[in-house]
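A protein record pairs a chain with a discrete description of its three-dimensional fold. The following entry can be read in just this way:
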Amino acid sequence: MRSIIPFTKVEATGNDFILLNDRDIELDLLNSTVIKKWCDRHFGIGADGLIHVAFQDLKIPKMTFFNADGSRGKMCGNGLRAVAKYLLTIGVCSKKSENTIEADDGLHSYFFEDTGLITVELLVNSSSETLPDLIGLPLPDNVELLGFRRVGVPHLVLETKEPEFKNFEALGRSLRYSSVFGTQGTNVNLINSIDENTLQVRTYERGVEAETLSCGTGVTASTLVFLEKKNPQKTELNIETRGGKLKVVLKQGRIFLSGPANVVFVGHIVLNG
């Protein structure tokens, strides 16, 4: 096993990831200490998360996602688009057909659009989870509770009328650790309806323990909760995040997230160095 490991840095609407594959490093070597160090923006490569992709001797590639704190996550929507871009770049998949990748929460389809965008399918529980204790969550007067949805990972969805809401990170941190969500906690999303077709979404991500520029599962959960509460007949929304624009489409019982992903740079890093 190499001690100098090749990696690829990929960003998807500002959500950035370190991509590795099983030709270069075994999954078992990626412990939480290594992952935290490599994701550190001062002492490592710097990223919101790390994704290991296995494709050797597999009919369907498998992605394993880790948060920047070294914890494992079942799914990352922007990370899924980053993996699609990575697999295309290294020649493992084709632009011309529907592709499939396995994650901890199941099998996901992904497509490369003629526009250059990447569309991925996300898996969601059949109905919103009801948590009565949500009613008692301490919220500012200018923030409304909308609901809760699990898109591979849990998401609390809040709404505000203020497009430049201040102190969101402090609000997200306080709710992320609320006891009603158990020991694993939750991600926290704050949405603002710009018009009937567009939502602004901000997300405080657990595992990163900060607001990120974009969160794919977060914008998907926010879209589902918003449409369920406000406009059940609508099937798609444009999403604006601090890292760029996304689109969520509901089609024939399936849920799709579309947006860009770009290779930022490639390099090598020393394992245990």
Q: What stands out?
A: The domain at 132-252 is CATH 3.10.310.10 (Diaminopimelate Epimerase; Chain A, domain 1). The mean pLDDT is 93. Residues 33 and 166 are 33 Å apart (CA to CA). The two ends are 14 Å apart (CA to CA).
